[in-house]
């Protein structure tokens, strides 16, 4: 377990907190301090006797008074500044280890979500399955920040210095600064998603979701549908996107009826559908996903969400998703590996999205990736260039992809038969298209216009 201190206050990261005893890995005891971000969470029953409160680390570490206090606390919690030089330098990371009950517990569990959440699916324990696989170097890395930067990930998963403001009595602390202001739209979305998921999980803990899965029809084979459409038509298999709006393009369609659009896509020859579920930035919803599934649409469905936690995968499945999107610029390798495992257990496909060579190389090195999406739109800047698909499939990368029989999806910015021919020539066997279809008065007919011929039936 680990906590991050900001401005001298311990803030528990949401990934540390459990939304049900179900998700606590055995031998680990979750402890929650009152924290201002995310909203304070309750603690699991055996720990409810622990006092909650705010803890001033600077005082804890430095003052005499605090050593008294520290002693008092030690019966309950042991504090392991790790390493102390770093704490002193930036007062940013402290590890907490519970001593309850008499478990030899834990020292510092590696600070990566994958090891912490301990979600199990079926009889297999994902975390233990991963333990053997993650490289020692990876597990040994003490800071998620460092893992993330070593993988070239620029997106910070949470504001490093906490939210812009917090209140103590009548006082207001922390003004807007570099550490609590998102640097780009993707970062903003991810920070918002983190809070949103924390709240959603509270309403629907993992064990209730798992129960709900028993009544959900089995997943459909997303990849097989794309391959067979490609074989049938000689053109890339189409994932047609049900998208009302986007931060870069605004509202795409005012009279937005997700089920009617999905049905039109299916009729027009789409192999699969992608359904935006993000509400705030894309005006989508999980209700749309479920409504499309319940309306009897047969195409496999991709849950188009910004996944930051495995819980979202279970939630998507419970709403009828057959596949999920994992964005390499958001998720470190270990999270991708972990989430791939979960998808496998749930029988879902995983579309792993990359935008540049570095992300492509990372993803190609991960075992078990069968479907890679190349996003021609940079989600940080919104720039679109379909030449990216070509660039990332040239040379050795293309060769490796063919050897591994990975199916590549060209994503975003595709409007004309020439665009389709261009990315097909580059090596994709599938395309993901939203705007150019959803804007048509008949989105199904839009498919024929996009491909330059009828691909239905
Ligand atoms: O509407 P377009 O330009 O055809 O793009 C569709 C799809 O590629 C795009 O919506 C997308 C690709 N990756 C994403 C990740 C999150 C949200 C949206 C996306």
Automatic annotation (TrEMBL):
It comes from the Eukaryota. It is an enzyme of class 4 (lyase). The keyword Secreted does not apply. Residues 101-129 are annotated as: Disordered. GO terms for biological process: L-tryptophan biosynthetic process. It catalyses: 1-(2-carboxyphenylamino)-1-deoxy-D-ribulose 5-phosphate + H(+) = (1S,2R)-1-C-(indol-3-yl)glycerol 3-phosphate + CO2 + H2O. Pathway: Amino-acid biosynthesis; L-tryptophan biosynthesis; L-tryptophan from chorismate: step 4/5. PROSITE patterns: IGPS (PS00614). Keywords: Amino-acid biosynthesis, Aromatic amino acid biosynthesis, Decarboxylase, Lyase, Tryptophan biosynthesis. Residues 114-128 have a biased composition (Polar residues). Its EC number is 4.1.1.48. One of its GO terms (molecular function) is indole-3-glycerol-phosphate synthase activity. Residues 186-449 form the Indole-3-glycerol phosphate synthase domain. InterPro entries: Aldolase_TIM (IPR013785), Indole-3-glycerol_P_synth (IPR045186), Indole-3-glycerol_P_synth_dom (IPR013798), Indole-3-GlycerolPSynthase_CS (IPR001468), RibuloseP-bd_barrel (IPR011060). This is indole-3-glycerol-phosphate synthase. It comes from Raphanus sativus. The gene is LOC108855382.
């Amino acid at each position: 377990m680990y906590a991050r201190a900001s401005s001298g206050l311990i803030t528990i990261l949401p990934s540390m907190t459990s939304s049900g005893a179900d998700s606590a890995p055995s031998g680990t005891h979750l402890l929650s301090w009152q924290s201002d971000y995310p909203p304070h969470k309750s603690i699991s029953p055996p720990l409810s006797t622990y006092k909650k409160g705010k803890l001033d680390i600077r005082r804890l570490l430095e003052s005499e008074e605090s050593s008294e206090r520290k002693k008092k606390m030690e019966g309950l919690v042991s504090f392991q500044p790790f390493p102390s030089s770093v704490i002193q330098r930036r007062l940013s990371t402290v590890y907490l280890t519970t001593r309850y009950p008499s478990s030899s517990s834990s020292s510092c569990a590696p600070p990566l979500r994958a090891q912490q959440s301990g979600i199990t699916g079926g009889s297999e324990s994902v975390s233990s399955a991963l333990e053997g696989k993650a490289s020692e170097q990876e597990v040994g890395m003490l800071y998620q920040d460092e893992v993330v930067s070593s993988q070239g990930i620029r997106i910070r998963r949470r504001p490093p210095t906490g939210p812009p403001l917090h209140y103590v009595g009548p006082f207001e602390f922390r003004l807007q600064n570099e550490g609590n202001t998102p640097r780009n739209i993707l970062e903003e979305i991810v920070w918002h998603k983190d809070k949103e998921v924390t709240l959603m999980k509270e309403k629907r803990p993992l064990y209730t979701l798992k129960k709900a899965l028993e009544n959900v029809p089995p997943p459909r084979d997303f990849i097989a549908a794309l391959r067979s459409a490609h074989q049938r038509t000689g053109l890339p298999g189409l994932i047609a996107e049900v998208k009302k709006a986007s931060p870069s393009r605004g509202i795409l369609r005012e009279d937005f009826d997700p089920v009617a659009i999905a049905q039109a896509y299916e009729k027009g020859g789409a192999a699969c559908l992608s359904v935006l579920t993000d509400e705030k930035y894309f005006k989508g919803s999980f209700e749309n996903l479920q409504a499309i599934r319940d309306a009897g649409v047969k195409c496999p469905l991709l849950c188009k969400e910004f996944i930051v936690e495995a819980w979202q995968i279970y939630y998507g499945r419970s709403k009828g998703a057959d596949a999920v999107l994992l964005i390499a610029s958001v998720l470190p390798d270990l999270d991708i590996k972990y989430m791939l495992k979960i998808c496998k257990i749930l029988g879902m496909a995983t579309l792993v999205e990359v935008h540049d060579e570095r992300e492509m190389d990372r993803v190609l090195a991960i075992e078990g990736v069968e479907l890679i999406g190349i996003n021609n739109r940079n989600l940080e800047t919104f720039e679109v260039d379909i030449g990216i698909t070509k660039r990332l499939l040239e040379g050795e990368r293309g060769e490796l992809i063919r050897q591994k029989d990975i199916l590549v999806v060209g994503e975003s910015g595709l409007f004309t038969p020439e665009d389709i021919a261009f990315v097909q020539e580059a090596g994709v066997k599938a395309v993901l298209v939203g705007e150019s279809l959803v804007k048509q008065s008949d989105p199904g007919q839009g498919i024929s216009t996009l491909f330059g011929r009828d691909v239905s039936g």
